[in-house]
Amino acid sequence: MKEVLSQSLEQRMQLRLSPLQIRLVRMLEMSEPEIEEEVRRELDDNPALEVADSVAGDDSAEESFNETADDMQLADYASEDDIPPYRLGINNRSADDSVFEPVAVAGGGSLIDYLMTQLAETEMSERQLDISRYVIGNLDDNGYMTRSLQQIEDDLAFDAGIEVTAEELKTVYNAIRRLDPAGVGANDLRDCLLLQLKRLPENDSTRLASEIVRDYFDIFSLRHFDRLASMLGVSRESLKAADEVIRSLDPKPASRIGESDADDRTRHIIPDFYVDVDQNDRVTVTMPNNIPDLVIERSFVAYDNGGEPWNASSGKRQSEAQSFITKKREEASDFIELLRMRRSTLMNVMEAIVRWQKDFFVSEDESRLRPMVLRDISSFTGLDISVISRATAGKYVATPGGVYPLKFFFNERVNDEEDASSHEILSSLKGLISDEDTASPLSDDALTTMLNEMGYNIARRTVAKYRERLGIPVARLRKKI
C-alpha cells in the first residue's frame, strides 16, 4: 500500500467565551433570591471582599452601638407599662446554658398520616392497621388506588410477609373508603363521585345524580342532555339540578392533603423589577436594592499600594502570600464588576421591554400587548439574542396590576400578514366564549368565523390551539342545561 502525505489549509471561525463571560452568563440566569445567595457565598469564601457599609462606619459609631437583642426588642414597646411581665423576668443562666424557646411550626402531614390518624380512632386491630398502612401507600396524591386488591394481596405476602385473605383485605379497604375526605380510595372518577354522593343528604337531586353517575356516566360525560332526559324520563329542570350536584363534587379529593399554610407562604414570587406609572402615563423601572455595595477589603488594598500583609520569614512564604493576595483581590474585583454588568444588562433589557409594551403597562389590558420576540429586544439593546433569553428566564416584574413573568410579554404574530399579537387574539377568544350561549356553545369553526369577521385572519387549527392554551374544553364539554 502506497502512503501519501498531503497538506491542506482551512479557515474556521470559533467563538470562545472567557471564564468571566461564562460566569456573567450564569449570573444573568439567576433570580433575585439566587443572586443574593451568590453574594453571601462569595463574601464567605473570599476574604478580599467585604460590604462597603462596614468600611464607611467609623470606630465611634461601632463603640456607641452596644444594644443587645433583648434591648432592641424592649425598645419596640411604647412604654414600660406595655412590656409583658415575662420580658422583664431575670434569667439566671450562664452564657453556655441552652435555653428552650418554643417555636410555632405549621403542620402539614402526608396523606398516609392523615388517614392513619383517622383509622387509629377506630376499633381496628394492630394487624389491620399494618394492612391499612400498606393499602394507603398505594394511593396517589389525589386519593385514587393505583393497584388492584389482588396485586396488593400478593405484595403483602411477598414484600411484607403478611398473609391476608381476600375478605380481610376487602374489609380494610372498605374502611379506608369511608374515611375523609369523601372519595378517597376510589378506583376511578366514577367511583370517586359515587363515594361522595353517598355522603350527601338524600333528596331527589342527589338520587338522580347517583343514578346518572352509576348507570349513564358515559352519556353524561358527552353532555347529551336531551338523550339523557329522555332515557331517565325526567324534566330538564330536574336534570339541571342533578348536574349542579355532580359539578359540585371534587374529582381530586386528596389533592389538598399534606399542604400546609407554611407551604402556601413559601410559594411566593419575589419580583426582579418594579414598574410604576404616574398620572402623566410616565413609566419608570426600578430594581430591588437588596444586594449591598461591595468593595475590596482594606488590608488587600493596602498591600496593593505597597504595604506588607505580615512579616514573612522566608522569600518562599512571602511569594506564596503575595500570590494568594493577588488572586483573591482579582477575584473580588471581577465579582464586583460582574454584579455591575448583570444589573446594567437586566435594566437595559427591562427598559426595552417597557418601551416596546408601554401601552400594556399604562392600561394593564392584555389586548394592548404588541407582537414582540427576542430579536426585537436585541435590536433595542444591541445585546445578543442568547443574552436576552437568559436575562428574561425566570424573572418577574411587579406592576400596579399584578406580577408577570417577563416571558409573558414575548408573543409572535399569528402570521406574517397579521399585526395582532397572540395575546390580543387570546383575549378576544376568551371574550367570545364567555358570552356564548351555554346551552349551545360555539364550535371551533364558529369561533374561527367570528374572529375572521373581527379582523383576525387565522385558521381553525390555530383557534383550537389557543382554546387549549386557555384551558377551555371543546364545545361539547362546555354545554350546560
Give an account of the 3D structure.
The protein has a four-stranded mixed sheet with strand order 3-2-5-6. The radius of gyration is 34 Å and the shape is extended. The chain has 481 residues and is mostly helical. Among the domains are: 111-179, Orthogonal Bundle (Arc Repressor Mutant, subunit A); 193-257; 273-409, no CATH class; 422-478, Orthogonal Bundle (Arc Repressor Mutant, subunit A), CATH 1.10.10.60. The chain has helices at 19-28, 32-45, 52-56, 59-64, 69-74, 111-120, 126-136, 149-160, 166-177, 189-199, 204-215, 217-221, 225-232, 236-247, 261-266, 298-304, 315-356, 358-363, 374-381, 385-392, 422-434, 444-453, 460-469, 475-478; strands spanning 49-51, 273-277, 283-286, 294-296, 396-399, 402-405. α6 (111-120) packs antiparallel against α7. The model is unreliable at 55-66, 92-107 and 260-266 (pLDDT under 50). Keywords: DNA-binding, DNA-directed RNA polymerase, Nucleotidyltransferase, Sigma factor, Transcription, Transcription regulation, Transferase. InterPro entries: RNA_pol_sigma_54, RNA_pol_sigma_54_core-bd, RNA_pol_sigma_54_DNA-bd, RpoN_core-bd_sf. Residues 323-479 form the RNA polymerase sigma factor 54 DNA-binding domain. Belongs to the sigma-54 factor family.
